[in-house]
Amino acid sequence: MRHYEVVFIVHPDQSEQVPGMIERYRQTVTGRSGKIHRLEDWGRRQLTYPIQKIHKAHYVLMNVECDNETLNELEHAFKFNDAVLRHLIVKMGAAVTSPSPMMKEEKSRSLTGGAAAEEAARPAPAVPAPEPAAT
User: Fold this and answer.
1) What is the pTM of this model?
2) Judging by DSSP bridges, how do beta strands 84-92 and 35-51 pair with one another?
3) Which residues contact 5 (CB under 8 A, 6 or more apart)?
4) Closest Cα partner for 64 from 88, 30, 115, 31?
5) pLDDT tens digits for the chain (135 residues)?
6) From start to end of the chain, where are the E strands?
7) 20 to 30 Å CA-CA from 3: which of 44, 67, 71, 72?
């Protein structure tokens, strides 16, 4: 089995359907003895350029380990789902489980429930400035 990073963009009018879509894609991967190493819902974000006169969309990131047949089924599901505006599948060398840079933003949340992902999603505590030395 190989490791893949999958990002898909969902039409903003279909944002309510994203949890159901994520669960369906999760079942597709895990139902065929695959694994999901990282699953992040980045929420609704501004697009760099308009797609079909749409300026915002809902982003989801998945890092999966699956066989080629499962990957083809997942890609087929993306192609024939009208709510998915774009998708990108990239082959990875190893499993990626650490939070993505997008997770550092407060609107994002990890759907795998890892403590490290929750910790990365919180803002860093303020460090007090050192007191000046008395002379």
Assistant:
1) 0.75
2) unpaired
3) 61, 62, 63, 89, 90, 92, 96
4) 30
5) 899 999 999 999 998 999 999 999 999 999 998 999 999 998 899 999 999 999 999 999 999 999 999 999 999 999 999 999 999 999 999 988 888 888 766 545 666 665 444 554 455 555 555 566 665
6) 2-10, 35-51, 54-66, 84-92, 109-110
7) 44
